[in-house]
Write a structure and sequence with these properties.
383 residues, mainly beta, Methylamine Dehydrogenase, Chain H, five-stranded antiparallel beta sheet, 0% helix
Length: 383
């Protein structure tokens, strides 16, 4: 297999991601930001497809989606995340190496903010590859980080709470492994990137996150965290003191514990098998279940998370899904899971059995959502 990493070619509009096993490509597996504290709130699902960002209301009882509204968005987006208050939505423009910012109204309507979009890095002339990819916001809503795959860097921004505007933290941090996606751990002290070009199974770079200024510092002596094979590290998810990495070429999920005080990673056990070409990952808010979208076999794998962090396949897993599930998100209540289906142009919704973790597809699902849907977020908005 060639080691030339063509990261999500735009000529095929991400269609080639569905051939991960033949051509190395690279979820923002971030845990969902918590909803507004206190008062009443409503949930909205936001989805990016070709040149459009869609908004759907979420029925709190059934998870069903309401009628869609839409605004202009990036041609291709590999990352979407909201601030913890649910008042602003950040969407990566993966071709122009930018971040688009939208205000979120109480009815889920999106409006671009003044100053948007914000540059992440420099786009080489004639670029047709993904640059800005995964996004992450820290738990305080103070900082946003963007994986800049093509420029081998992590860009950091401070967030103005009253407007959602971004201000660069300065020179991006170098990441030679080709960062694809980002997660921040539950302590808000450590940031991890899946390094698609690292050439190692479960290749991840770890950083300490300085809460006073947002500066990232590589964890010394630990990164990347494995040294053999070539698994195509892509999706990321974290819960408690554990980190999980989807290996898109090895068809498995690497499992790590996070060392408190250093941010270093230690393998919990050997990688556990997934379906064909694991892509997006999501973990329930209570940390009980982890789900992985298998982009090349139309299934979603489900696992229980043990007390040691070790994963166990759920009964009935993998669960049937629509064509080419790509990215996943779970609503803040932990009751519903949504998957974008890249080639089908749809979203599939599932209820999550709180006792067993089993997925059951909604009646009436999947829902049409435009061409090549990719990133998504479920946000609780104050009413």
């Amino acid at each position: 297999m060639t080691n030339t990493r063509k990261f999500l070619p735009t000529a095929a509009l991400l269609g080639s991601l569905l051939l991960l096993a033949a051509c190395k490509l690279t979820t923002n597996g971030n845990s969902l930001p918590s909803g507004p504290s206190g008062g009443n709130s409503a949930e909205y699902l936001f989805v990016s497809s070709q040149d459009t960002v869609w908004s759907y209301s979420v029925d709190s009882t059934t998870g069903a989606l309401g009628a869609a509204t839409a605004v202009s968005g990036p041609h291709v987006s590999e990352g979407m995340v909201a601030n913890p208050a649910g008042s602003y939505l950040y969407v990566s423009d993966s071709i122009n190496d930018e971040v688009n910012v939208y205000s979120v109204s109480s009815s889920g309507v999106l409006n671009p903010i003044s100053g948007s979009p914000y540059a992440v890095g420099t786009v080489p002339s004639g670029n047709s590859m993904v640059a800005a990819a995964g996004l992450a916001v820290d738990s305080t809503g103070t900082y946003l980080y963007a994986a800049d795959y093509q420029n081998n860097a992590i860009a950091g921004f401070s967030i103005t709470g009253s407007t959602g505007a971004l201000t660069s933290l300065g020179t991006p941090v170098v990441n030679a492994g080709g960062p694809a996606h980002i997660v921040i751990d539950s302590t808000n002290n450590y940031l991890y990137t899946s390094d698609y070009n690292s050439g190692v199974v479960g290749g991840v770079t770890a950083y300490t996150l300085n809460s006073s200024n947002g500066v990232l510092t590589p964890v010394p002596g630990f990164s990347p965290f494995t040294t053999v094979g070539d698994g195509g590290p892509f999706g990321l998810a974290t819960t408690g003191g554990f980190l999980y990495v989807g290996e898109s070429l090895a068809n498995s999920v690497a499992q790590f514990s996070i060392t408190n005080g250093t941010g270093g990673l230690l393998p919990i056990t050997t990688a556990i098998a997934s379906g064909n070409s694991p892509a997006g990952m999501a973990v329930t808010p209570n940390g009980k279940y982890l789900y992985v979208a298998n982009a090349n076999d139309t299934t979603i794998s489900g696992y229980s998370v043990g007390s040691t962090g070790a994963l166990t396949a759920l009964s009935g897993s993998p669960f049937a899904a629509s064509s080419n599930p790509y990215y996943l998100k779970i609503d803040p209540s932990g009751a519903f899971l949504y998957a974008t289906n890249l080639s089908a142009g749809t979203i599939t919704g599932f209820t999550i059995n709180s006792s067993t973790g089993a997925l059951t597809q909604f009646s009436g699902s999947p829902t049409s959502v435009g061409i090549n849907p990719t990133s998504l977020a479920v946000v609780a908005v104050s009413q």
